[in-house]
Amino acid sequence: MSEQLATSTGPVPHWSDGDGEVPTVTRGEGAYVYDEEGTEYLDFLSQLYCVNAGHSNDAIVEAMAEQARRIPYVSSSKHNDARSALADRLAEVAPDGLSDVYFAVSGSEANESAVQFARAHQDAHKVLTRWRSYHGGTYGAGALTGDPGTRATLERHAATSGSGKFLPPLPGAFDAETPEELAEQAADHLEFVIRNEGPDSVAAVLTEPIGGTSGAYPAPPGYFERVRDICDEYDVLLISDEVITGFGRCGDWFGIQTEGVTPDAITFAKGVTSAYAPLAGVLVNDALGAELRAEGVDLGQTFAGHPVACAAGVAAMDAYDDGLVDNCRDLAPVLESELRGLAEAYDAISDVRGRGLLWGVEFADPETGDPFVDPWAGDQGEEGDNPVAEVREVATEKGVLVGGGRPDIQLIIAPPLCVGEAEIREAVGVLGDAVGEVFG
Architecture of 58-319 per CATH? Predict the structure, then answer.
């Protein structure tokens, strides 16, 4: 091991297990990326659910270059025209009443900022998040995360406090027989948790409107309306984590808008610039915004609201507004139909769910209904191999990149919003070949 460490050079990949090779991606165009040998891949995870406008969008690149030529950096403690322009655009498309923007650098930091604002505004320390959620990999955001792999990694040496968990509105967590019953039971459960934590101690509920890497699952009808009512009844803020679901990914500017509910704050990152530059932030309602402006903010980040990133954000929003969100809505039924056809063809696929161009494909043993391998439960399978991971590997070998879920019993499908119908059919066809090769 020491010899290997001594001779290893180059960048250390994130989310790696220290074993195996990762591709070297050197070029992208539209919904495709290419490695250093020129091998072409359909990018059906938008790299990390973030390149929403597709690769090599010239308008975004030119906007960044123009901003860099004018002034490449302005302190985050000052105003800048690109920063103000993006803030105005965000307020235009956000749910009514969310008009103030606090910029950050990453989704993890945006979630931590939103929680800090909520705790100060409410004078309460607890924030409730779902089990089987992901809100970031920094210490604060990791404590909010329901994924035990992330929390266990961070808490191996130190832990944070001030977070509580509640069950997601998934059929496996309740005994409901209909979507309506599931919505009622899951909302009743959240109310039970708030009451037993002590409503005065709960500052906010932080949740994704549609699950991200936790499985792309939408809530059953009526769930979020009830969650909003519960938060109002107990004077708890509702924060919508839109790091993945924002910027057209689910068929509207923000995923919560597909539920017809207005949160008190929205956190965003990833797609705001189509990942052409790191940028994140928090959209807050008028009450929170007025408090932040009146009392000031004692915290900050050097690169928050970077002018080049903000210029990229304005250009990306132009692209979304110029047909990409519409394309997502138009092609969502095609992707859904293709994936459901895949489920009908293979018994190993137990569930398909999603919204817009964000979908999850879950696998289970058809004889038992249990996952083939459940890493979170310490189940590594008879030979230590996970067939779901193998499906991803085979799909990659065949030229299609798809994501892994949390837990790793599922695939996440999230192509760029510029994808075409033929590319969807091709990618799902390749995915079907991979499922057939692994499961027979």
Answer: 3-Layer(aba) Sandwich (3.40)
